[in-house]
Amino acid sequence: MNQFQYVRPSKAQAAIEAVAKDANATFIAGGTNLVDLMKRGIATPQKLVDINRLPLTKIERENNGLRIGALALNSAVADDKQVREKQPLLALALNAGASAQLRNMATVGGNMLQRTRCAYFYDLTMPCNKREPGTGCGALEGINRMHAIFGFSDKCIAVHPSDMSVALVALDATVLVTGPKGERRIPFADFHRLPGDTPEKDTNLERGELITAVDVPDGPFTKHVHYQKVRERASYAFALLSVAAALDIENNTIKAARLAMGGVAHKPWRLTAAEQSLVGKPATEETFRQAAAVAMQGAKAFKHNAYKLKLAPNTIIQALKTAAAA
Amino acid sequence: MAMNPEHDAPAGHDEARRTFLKQSSLLTALAFVPAPVVDAAAANLDEKVAGAIEKVPLKLEVNGKKYKLAVEPRTTLLDLLREELNLTGTKKGCDYGQCGACTVHVDGQRVNSCLSFAVMHDGRKVTTIEGLADGDKLHPMQEAFVKHDGFQCGYCTPGQIMSAVACVREGHAGSDAEIREYMSGNICRCGAYSNIVAAIQEVKNGGQKV
Q1: What is the mean pLDDT of residues B94-117?
Q2: Name one Pfam family in it (chain A) (predicted).
């Protein structure tokens, strides 16, 4: 691993300045992805700004919702009483990710900023526009079993690996960031980006901007929720794909719905058209089947991931059925 | 398993190598870092100090013993434990957070020691497999692993046991299914899983202090 300078500011402003003025500096929180990338030579920061001592771990009530500090651990959020009561979908998604040890290290902000697990991104001998812009996409004509079926470009077909983010985009969360130019709020759906011609950029954060918290507004989704994750072993594996489903049901009629998918695009994939198709309908398998068909419009597979065109609608239906029965 | 490497470890080739590394890095540290700078840096690790020295001061309590160290920032907690503190009970399996062999407790929480830099844990309390037993008396989880044959080759065992203790303390050992889910971060190539689950069940149901 390359040598680097290590600093540990106690104030957010100092941390932001340190990263803003140095293109080779980066924040480190839990480190569960960054240390991995540094060991492999994929990330080579010259300076690490350790933000673990910043006071950003609280989970509290704020403006008709929960404000979750960016440094709250994944395990702490998943076990939090308020989260389990108000946003059970978030707790389910968090517990579907990684392992108990990793959830004790990984933070909310870091989870959002983790890089893709595309094998070509991880293999330094292979071309990858995300790792090294202009070298091409190895997955496009390569082994693309794990890859995107929505929103990809000819520069990158990688998927975002976070489970937590799939729940947060479904729950209309907002990301709070502070940067050299001050504070701003980013709707969760606009936080991550599609690859386009610049797949090296995973998010719309600017240099030096620090995630401070995530706001999750209260909603009616406290009972009929489910996070369905499909993977190659029962636990501790990244998703082939996943579905976050939340329903508000009264007299067997769907009053409101939220639906998002993971493992299918460069960002957590919100399915608003499918949500709208559910509203006002009876909570039956037929309704769910129609919503799944709406969700799949525009999907396109590559050589090795055509199975996702079948697996995705089936998983949507399964997630909605389980949510309705919860 | 309760072996204290400072007293009981054989002084073989590996030991000599570790001692050499330890001494040489200590000499490097002494050459580059005047004591007052280390103390000042420990109090306030600002940019100026970290840039001026190669090593960063680190205070750590490991298995009840306090250490005042100077380490390179790129040293992982796992490498510090094994190579600098000679606590080789914690194993390096994959070194990428995929196998769990390196599991230790930091401030009581189980973590993968391979995936964080030691300097990030300044002021924290670390417990490794060497710190689990009470003298010669094995921890109940260690006893249960022996009784139920919770291992074959033994390489994943320190990580499994540290994780298992945390699993019970966290209250995630309510059923076989829950144990399997919350132990999924510890891979056992020999496939001793069913015996590991049995060992955890016994400790959980035994009512001993874990």
Answers
A1: 98
A2: FAD_binding_5
DSSP element (H, E) containing A121: helix A119-122
Place of tokens 């998010």: A203
Name the residue among B50, B100, B114 with its Cβ closest to that of A99.
Answer: B100
CATH superfamily name and code, A224-325: CO dehydrogenase flavoprotein, C-terminal domain (3.30.390.50)
Q: What residues of chain A lie within 8 A of the CB of B180, using their CB?
A: 234-235
What pTM does this model have? 0.91
By percentage, how much of chain A surpasses pLDDT 90? 100
Mapping DSSP onto H, E and C, the string for B45-78 reads CCHHHHHHCCCEEEEEEECCEEEEEEECCCCEHH
Classified by CATH at the fold level, domain A5-52 comes out as 3.30.43
Contacts of B22 (CB under 8 A, 6+ apart): B83, B84, B86
Domain residue limits, chain B? 5-131, 140-206
pLDDT 10s digits, A204-253 = 999 999 999 999 999 999 999 999 999 999 999 999 999 999 999 999 99
> What are B73's strand-pairing partners?
none
pLDDT value at B50 more than 80: no
B101 touches chain A (CB under 8 A): no
CATH architecture of the region B5-131: Roll (3.10)
Out of B115, B167, B186, closest to residue A35 by CB? B115
- Chain B, 110 to 169: residues with Cβ < 8 Å from chain A are 110-112, 114-117, 119-120, 122, 163, 166-167
Q: How far is CA A167 from CA A46, A253, A258, A259, in A?
A: 34, 23, 9, 9
CATH superfamily label, B140-206: [2Fe-2S]-binding domain (1.10.150.120)
**Residue extents of the structural domains in chain A:** 5-52, 224-325
